[in-house]
Write a structure and sequence with these properties.
The complex is a heterodimer. Chain A is an alpha+beta fold. Chain A has two domains: 225 residues, 3-Layer(aba) Sandwich (Rossmann fold); 109 residues, Beta Barrel (OB fold (Dihydrolipoamide Acetyltransferase, E2P)), CATH 2.40.50. Chain A has eight helices and 20 strands. In chain A, α2 crosses α3. Chain A is elongated, with a radius of gyration of 24 Å. Chain B is globular and about 70 Å long. By secondary structure, chain B is mainly α. The longest helix of chain B is centred in the first third of the chain and has 42 residues. The chains are: A alpha+beta, B mainly alpha. The interface between A and B is medium-sized, with 22 and 19 residues. Chain A: GO terms for molecular function: ABC-type polyamine transporter activity; ATP binding; ATP hydrolysis activity. Chain A: InterPro entries: AAA+_ATPase (IPR003593), ABC_SmlMolc_Importer (IPR050093), ABC_transporter-like_ATP-bd (IPR003439), ABC_transporter-like_CS (IPR017871), Mo/tungstate-bd_C_term_dom (IPR008995), P-loop_NTPase (IPR027417), PotA-like (IPR005893), Transp-assoc_OB_typ2 (IPR013611).
Chain lengths: 351, 280
């Protein structure tokens, strides 16, 4: 087991920067998730750790050893591919044994190590099947067992859940997470699914255009996003755009908003839907209170999204708990909207 | 109601007619392709020496004669030997060539691809004649015994094997999922081991089918061999041709049937290991 350090890692294809100055310190035993839209550089970063892409600049260190120029087969990383990449002509047991053979594990020990790895994913009884005889979820677990069997320093997961149906995805998410914690193996996972990232990671990294946007725990990223991109990619946000003048934020729609953090110039206030309170009653002094008109209502089951128009330009979406038949407002109602002062504020990103 | 019923009925009978026509044409095509084989097989059991219809009786004597004919037997073994050696050498060229053609971009890739398929397009007689001139000239220039030698003949047949195997191997390489190789390397296999343990089994149907077709086209080849054989070293098709110059008795039919059986057996055995129908 070992930590992974990425130092100023970049990959350029001509003028295109697939990854730019990626610096990360992944501690031993940590589950780190690289999150971002497609083409953000997360997969490039993962493949540079595995050794399939040679970085243009920067270094990769695994367990204190510089592996930047080492080919994949000399690195100790176990990668679970998006399509699982199981060897179709080998049985499940042979697939899992492959890594052990390559690492010169004595023949006598291979059998028991294969069995141990398959037991980890509860597939010991299917050792003699071929991959094509198994369901997607089972294949995924074989891939996981194969990646773990030779006891690599690092486990790498490339969108491991994207080929599973929604229900299975929930299940496997927890299986992977608990397995990882039980083994204490340093893990890097790539995903574009923020819910996956939020539920599995110790820390997560949001990437965009090859660069790291923000690194932190789920709470840090959710409660204190440092850019409009992160605020919209992790969770949902309503944005109120405006500018600071004289230390006060005034929206383009004319709302004066009190914020704890003060900036200068064009700025954006991000509001999480569950932090916005609706009420028919008058203002409290908990924060910023405005009056608005209910524009639309979407019923989500356990909660209800209420879109409130505050003026011609500004509108917010509030999430209210569904408390039964007469919970909340109906379209056209006049309501008061309140949100706290400690909301995230950041400089407007250049359009 | 009745109009709807009759038009529905019309549709069904149209479809039935379509299926019937399709079956009829398919049968016709099969008969057309198989008829010569059927006739040759029938002829091989005729009793009389001069093939005439109807046969006066049936016997196995022509098979006995074919097997007893030393020239046929020698020719058969030479053909088999040349076919096997040429196929082996052809694969040694075709496998690396197919990898280069499918996986690397380099200048002249298209040209090399066409060049490797060329022997399939050039008329056999032209290919044979060119090889003949080439081997005669090289023999004179180097004073090495190339012309008329076993290896000279094999060289010609390698050219027959290559186009088939390159075509079939590139096809299976294109269909091969390369993340499997990455998975192997991630598990600690160097590129050569990954190729041997993962890629080769994956493209095996293509390799076997390529070898199979290469061998068959070498085994049955007449035009190229005609220029490259010397007296005392004859392939089976040439032995058959030479025999035909003097006689047209059913011995030829018998030897042809034996040849067909060998090829069918080879096909069936191969198909047990890899489904050829999936590659070709």
């Amino acid at each position: 087991m070992a930590g992974v350090k990425l130092q100023g890692l970049s990959k350029h294809y001509g003028d295109f920067q697939a990854a730019e100055d990626v610096t990360l310190d992944i501690v031993d035993g940590e589950f780190l998730v690289l999150l971002g839209p497609s083409g953000c550089g997360k997969t490039t970063t993962l493949r540079m750790i595995a050794g399939f892409i040679e970085p243009t600049t920067g270094t990769v260190t695994i367990g204190g050893a510089d592996v930047t120029r080492l080919p994949p087969w000399k690195r100790s990383t176990g990668l679970v591919f998006q399509n699982y990449a199981l060897f179709p002509h080998m049985t499940v047991a042979q697939n899992v044994a492959f890594g052990l053979e390559m690492h010169k594990v004595p023949k006598a020990e291979i059998g028991s190590k294969v069995a141990t790895a398959l037991d980890l994913v509860q597939l010991g009884h299917l050792a003699d099947r071929y991959p094509r005889q198994m369901s997607g979820g089972q294949q995924q677990r074989v891939a996981l067992a194969r990646a773990l069997a030779f006891q690599p320093d690092v486990l790498l997961l490339d969108e491991p859940l994207s080929n599973l149906d929604a229900k299975l995805r929930h299940e496997v998410r927890h299986q992977i997470r608990s397995l990882q914690q039980r083994l204490g193996i340093t893990t890097v996972m790539v995903t574009h699914d923020q819910e996956e990232a939020l539920t599995m990671a110790d820390r997560m990294v949001v990437m965009k255009d090859g660069r790291i946007q923000q690194l932190g725990t789920q709470r840090e990223l959710y409660d204190d996003p440092t850019s409009e991109f992160v605020a919209s990619f992790v969770g949902r946000s309503s944005f109120i755009k405006g500018r600071f003048s004289g230390g006060r934020f005034v929206s383009h729609g004319g709302l004066a908003v009190e914020t704890e953090r003060r900036l200068t110039g064009e700025a954006v206030v991000a509001l999480r839907p569950e932090r916005i309170h609706l009420g028919a009653d008058a203002a409290s002094d908990a924060g910023n209170t405005y009056r608005g008109r209910v524009e639309s209502i979407s019923y989500l089951g356990s909660s209800i999204d209420v879109e409130v128009k505050l003026n011609e330009i500004d509108s917010v979406i509030a999430q209210v708990v569904n408390k039964g038949r007469d919970s909340g407002a109906s379209v056209g109602d006049e309501v008061s909207v309140t949100f706290p002062r400690d909301v995230p504020v950041f400089a407007a990103s250049p359009a | 109601m009745s109009t709807a019923g009759s038009s529905l009925g019309g549709m069904f009978s149209n479809r039935r007619l379509g299926r019937w026509t399709l079956n009829a044409f398919a049968t016709l095509a099969f008969v057309f392709a198989l008829l010569p084989l059927i006739f040759v097989t029938w002829l091989s059991f005729y009793e009389q020496e001069i093939p005439s219809f109807p046969p006066t009786g049936y016997s196995l004597q022509w098979y006995a004669r074919a097997i007893a004919n030393e020239r046929f037997i020698d020719a058969f073994f030479l053909s088999a030997q040349v076919g096997l050696v040429a196929t082996a050498i052809g694969l040694l060229v075709a496998i690396p060539a197919s990898i280069a053609l499918t996986r690397y971009a380099f200048t002249g890739r298209g040209a090399i691809n066409n060049l490797l398929l060329m022997p399939l397009v050039i008329p056999g007689i032209v290919l044979g004649f060119s090889l003949y001139i080439f081997q005669v000239e090289t023999t004179i220039a180097t004073e090495l015994p190339i012309m008329g030698s076993f290896w000279g003949l094999v060289f010609g047949h390698v050219l027959l094997v290559i186009p088939w195997s390159v075509r079939l191997i590139t096809a299976s390489l294109i269909g091969f999922d390369r993340t499997l190789e990455e998975a192997a390397m991630n598990l600690g296999a160097d590129p050569f081991t990954a190729f041997r343990r993962v890629t080769v089994p994956g493209i095996l149907p293509g390799i076997v089918a390529g070898a199979m077709f290469g061998f068959v086209s070498s085994f049955g080849n007449l035009e190229v061999s005609l220029f490259l054989v010397v007296p005392g070293q004859t392939t089976l098709p040439i032995a058959i041709l030479q025999y035909l110059e003097w006689k047209i008795d059913p011995t030829i039919a018998a030897i042809s049937v034996l040849q067909i059986l060998i090829i069918i057996a080879a096909m069936l055995i191969t198909d047990r290991f890899v489904r050829i129908s999936r590659v070709v």
